């Protein structure tokens, strides 16, 4: 770090301001350990100022016509497209993922911005005409007020974009708390949002860790909290913010099983599995981290290992790289510790990616594709989310056995089945107890016409981010029952019953 290391600002009431805190954390390039910036752990006064700005801005923003709100997001999607190469480079440098995958991260967020631009078609109430004599009932979907978002390190573009565009498009104001590990691309996206026309105070940003998150959970002027991150932190946020009376949605950790039947298209399936297990160095909540080979597909391990072995490990910005570094030295040690536990507990390490040679990047947090076969459900490598480029392989005799195995795992983020049989795929889709299912699609993250629908231990709160569900999450449905008196509705006299006449 040098005196010129940039310090990341907060955004409060339309101004990018330097934090007055004494606590700063380094943002580090995981391929080189170069310090890219310093991020502040904001003070409680700063959190309060950001919430106060959002509360004030809500007074006028809630009355802003829906077309005006929509046009800001039309402009915003254009700005994101124009700045895509810069955004991807920034993201790759601080997060580690490859440039094409970094573009994918921005693109999956951009799709939500496009959806937010269609808010006029989404925030629609219902009307029932003549529910009683001269009486109509209709609904309004009104914004809640100040909403907040807390995001993880692994999708520093997509996940903030899951949150503030739809919250703001529905008429709320927003406080974002990005991951302190890679907040730079998030801040660039926030700058572009202001350039697109988001008025002052409507979007605010504070940085920090546990204390700032707790302050968000407790703050009486915040109405709703959207969280994406690990299961222990998400559970804490859900409990604490719910206790404070807020609406809360938490998308959390995972252990996604891909079930492979022997009639699957082998080449396509193995390619899909290698990509979904090792892409983004396995740091995706929807990574296919657990493979269940059924029947004769149990003989496919050696070919999968050969495919994984060919993947190139290196810095995210180098051409041809498939697997970048993991986010931090601490993450690398944790993942290596889990690999060691797998060996100790008797799994077969058929591909060991530890300590790969990456010339010129000896200090990077690299782990190459790693595969365990012969894994059983009692092992730590099966029970814990590894969140690194490690695939664990289990076996099943039949599809029924595979379905029972997946359903016995507490997580419910995603799963996939690979088969050429429509009947088998349909059985899987019907019987599997996981919220997002892929059929020959390894990472079934739905596009924003739908919502992200992780389930069971991977999620708390009933409504998911983006799509139709998030319009309900960020609004209060108000029903209005109305009668306008005219000659036909007069003359009923006093009615002391509950019924509408
Ligand atoms: P994390 O839980 O460590 O951090 C998430 C956020 O919580 C960050 O903003 C962080 O500052 C804050 N935080 C961290 N520790 C805290 C504490 N003790 N108290 C209060 N706040 C705290 O998660 P991460 O490591 O950044 O992200 C990886 C995790 O996120 C994985 O478990 C992954 O599966 C999950 N994830 C889930 C989804 C999904 O949609 N289900 C998507 C992406 C990531």
Automatic annotation (TrEMBL):
Any one GO molecular-function label of the UniProt entry: methylmalonate-semialdehyde dehydrogenase (acylating, NAD) activity
InterPro entries found in the cross-reference section: Ald_DH/histidinol_DH (IPR016161), Ald_DH_C (IPR016163), Ald_DH_CS_CYS (IPR016160), Ald_DH_N (IPR016162), Aldehyde_DH_dom (IPR015590), MeMal-semiAld_DH (IPR010061)
One of the GO BP terms on file: L-valine catabolic process
PROSITE patterns named among the record's database cross-references: ALDEHYDE_DEHYDR_CYS
Keywords: NAD, Oxidoreductase
UniProt KW Oxidoreductase keyword: yes
Keyword Iron: no
Domain of life: Bacteria
Pfam family, one: Aldedh
The enzyme's E.C. designation: 1.2.1.27
Every Aldehyde dehydrogenase domain range: 17-480
UniProt family annotation: Belongs to the aldehyde dehydrogenase family.
Protein name as annotated: methylmalonate-semialdehyde dehydrogenase (CoA acylating)
Organism field: Stenotrophomonas koreensis
């Amino acid at each position: 770090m040098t005196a010129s290391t940039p310090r990341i600002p907060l955004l409060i009431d339309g101004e990018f301001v330097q934090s007055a805190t004494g606590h700063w954390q380094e943002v580090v390039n995981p391929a080189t350990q170069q310090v890219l910036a310093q991020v502040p752990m904001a003070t409680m006064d700063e959190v309060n100022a950001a919430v106060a700005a959002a509360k004030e801005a809500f007074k006028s923003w809630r009355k802003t016509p829906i077309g005006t709100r929509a046009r800001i997001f039309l402009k915003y999607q254009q700005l994101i497209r124009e700045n895509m190469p810069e955004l991807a480079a920034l993201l790759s440098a601080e997060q580690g993922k490859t440039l094409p995958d970094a573009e994918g991260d921005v693109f999956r967020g951009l799709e939500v911005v496009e959806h937010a631009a269609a808010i006029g078609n989404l925030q629609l109430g219902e009307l029932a005409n003549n529910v009683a004599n001269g009486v109509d009932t209709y609904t309004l979907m009104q914004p809640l007020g100040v909403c907040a978002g807390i995001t993880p390190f692994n999708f520093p573009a997509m996940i903030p974009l899951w949150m503030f565009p739809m919250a703001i498009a529905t008429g709320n104001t927003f406080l974002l708390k990005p991951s302190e590990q890679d907040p730079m691309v998030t801040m660039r996206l926030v700058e572009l949002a202001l350039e697109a026309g988001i008025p002052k105070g409507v979007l605010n940003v504070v940085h920090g860790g546990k204390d700032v998150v707790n302050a968000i959970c407790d703050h009486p002027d915040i109405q709703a909290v959207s969280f994406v991150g690990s299961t222990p932190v998400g559970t804490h946020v859900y409990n604490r913010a719910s206790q404070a009376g807020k609406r809360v949605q938490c998308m959390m950790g995972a252990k996604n099983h891909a079930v492979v039947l022997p009639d699957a298209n082998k080449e396509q399936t193995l390619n899909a599995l290698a990509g979904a297990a090792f892409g983004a160095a396995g740091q995706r909540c929807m990574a296919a981290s657990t493979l269940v080979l059924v029947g004769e597909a149990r003989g496919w391990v050696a070919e999968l290992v050969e495919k994984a072995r060919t993947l190139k490990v290196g810095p995210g910005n180098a051409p041809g790289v498939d697997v970048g570094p993991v986010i931090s030295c601490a993450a690398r040690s944790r993942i290596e510790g889990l690999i060691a536990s797998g060996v100790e507990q008797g799994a077969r390490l058929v591909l060991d990616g530890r300590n790969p040679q990456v010339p010129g990047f000896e200090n990077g947090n690299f782990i190459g594709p790693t595969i365990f076969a012969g894994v059983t459900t009692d092992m730590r490598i099966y029970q814990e989310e590894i969140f690194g480029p490690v695939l664990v392989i289990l076996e099943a005799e039949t599809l029924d056995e595979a379905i029972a195995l997946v359903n016995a795992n507490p997580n419910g983020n995603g799963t996939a089945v690979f088969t050429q049989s429509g009947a088998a795929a349909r059985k899987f889709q019907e019987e599997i107890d996981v919220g997002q299912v892929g059929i020959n699609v390894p990472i079934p993250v739905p596009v924003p016409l739908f919502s992200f629908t992780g389930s069971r231990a991977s999620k708390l709160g009933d409504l998911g981010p983006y799509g139709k569900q998030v319009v309900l999450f960020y609004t209060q449905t108000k029903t209005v029952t109305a009668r306008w008196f005219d000659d036909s509705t007069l003359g009923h006299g006093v009615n002391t019953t509950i019924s509408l006449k």
